[in-house]
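Blackboard transcription, Thursday session:
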Amino acid sequence: MEWYMVLLLIFGSLVILMAIGIPVAFSFMAICVVGSLVFWGGQVGMEQVIRSFFSSVATFTFLPVPLFILMGNIIFESGVGMLVVDAVDKILGRLPGRLSLLAIGAGTLLGTMIGISGASIAILTKSLVPEMFKRGYKKAMSLGPIVASGMLAVMIPPSAAAIILGAIGRVSIGKLLIAIILPGLLIAFFFAAYIIVRCMLQPSLAPSYAAARVSLLEKLSITIRHILPLGIIIFAVIGTIYLGIASPSEAAALGAVACFLLAAGHRKLNWQTVKKSVVSTVHITAMVLIIVAASISFSKILACSGALAGLINLATSLPVAPIIIIIATQLLVVILGCFMDPISILMITLPMFMPIVSALGFDTLWYAVILMINIQLALITPPFGLDCYTMKALAPPDVSIGDVFRSSIPLLAIGFLAMALIMVFPQIALWLPSVAR
Amino acid sequence: MKVVERARAVWDRAITALMVLAAVLIMADMLAVSVTVILRQTLGVAWPGYFELTEYSLLWIAFLAAAWLLKNDLHIRIDMVVSHLNPRRRAITNIVAYIICIILLGVVTWYSVKLTWHDYQAATIVSTVLRPLKWPIELIIPIGSFLLFIQSLMKVYEHLTSLKVMSRGQRTGSKL
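(Written on the board underneath:)
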């Protein structure tokens, strides 16, 4: 059978299984079972699949997945996230679109503690949306910035998605965690610039109001009590990797302990907080690891079938500039992002795309950063952007899912602009890892 | 009927207990790794085997909680097609989906039992620093797969029951 028929058969079956509602992990597993019978010779093949479950999940590389998720859950459940939002609120002066800028500023700070977008969006929605509506903010300037700031939670380390992408795509996780910092800050800057410019042009979107006066002494006290302690977490997660003190997995453990200590320091750590945080962590971790176990076997089956080699040959022999192929792969991710969650997208595309990127001579770290932005944008892409549904669930009842999607469109465009910039100027992503120890 | 309900309650408690065990493993990993790093950086004490234990725990976490996830419908699913079906067709599609899961998980359970049994008999060792026996570590794969198999059976039963209720409702409706 020709390689493209094999590829079509494998992906066609996968899509059908997923479409009839079989959990993503079991859809991958089903392809592995059938694939092992066809390509790996029956019983021996099945044994290989089971051995692959063992070897793919039982690796130190994946330890940051539960620990980064735990960090986010502790910050969310304990209420420390809300304290950060309040602190930034008191420090921020009178600015056009103040509360929208607050969402971006607080979202960036929360990003240093939270590795999943949902937790950041939940904190910001609960703490800011009622206030925004009370101050007469239009939906475009209230919902959009918050849902987009969820992206910053993932683009600023810690980031669970970066761990999965790095591990499956065989990119250095330490370097990837450092490489996403500048693009993450760049996106935050673009979001803030967009809010300021739009609010200056259309002041009715975010009516100006006199924020409560906070004395310099109080600002200083708030900074010391609520903002500076975040430095401990930033050091535990980024500093230790950057200075070569700890590996990403060790840094994740230190970060999680730092989050517990921070919550305890604020007297917000109790049994209920710990219980809720850990149960939620088990939920996401087990879900992700089972998918990882199945999808790594899937990528091996794909490689053994000859479909992957055929695809790489095709990609490298096409009479077009290699960057066009890179753009085409990203467009495919954008399309998949309209219908699938980021983890599933990564598991389906990484086994195909990473070998192509290497074969075309591009830096896989650079490509991974672009892919990270793209899969995060998938979370706010209609009609199935999960982050938009998270916000809808927590926002006041008069907010429709259409409102959330509409308000996020300009910020979605900014995300794509950032992707394009990193494609043109790879140093935005590659400079920081190049100077790390 | 009472027996079925009681068995179900025991089952639910059992898989929740396994999920709690997974939660304990995550906390243990966090503490073990942090203590090891701190000891290494402050006292220069290093124990190279610690990361191996956390590696094995990840496998256990994944398979210990998998059935609890399935029971609570927490596994990622793409429901864009299924959600557009009417309740009856949705229930039928779910039954088909879970029957496929039953077959799949039955096969995985069977082969993982065989593999674990083989490794037990051969006393296979993982060639790492700790050199542990392999079968106690991989034992969670057949256990987890079997729990998923049973949970899938229960899902089929649930959807069949809801289908029956729907059919009964339709019949009552048409009589009225």
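Lecturer's comment: The radius of gyration of chain B is 22 Å.
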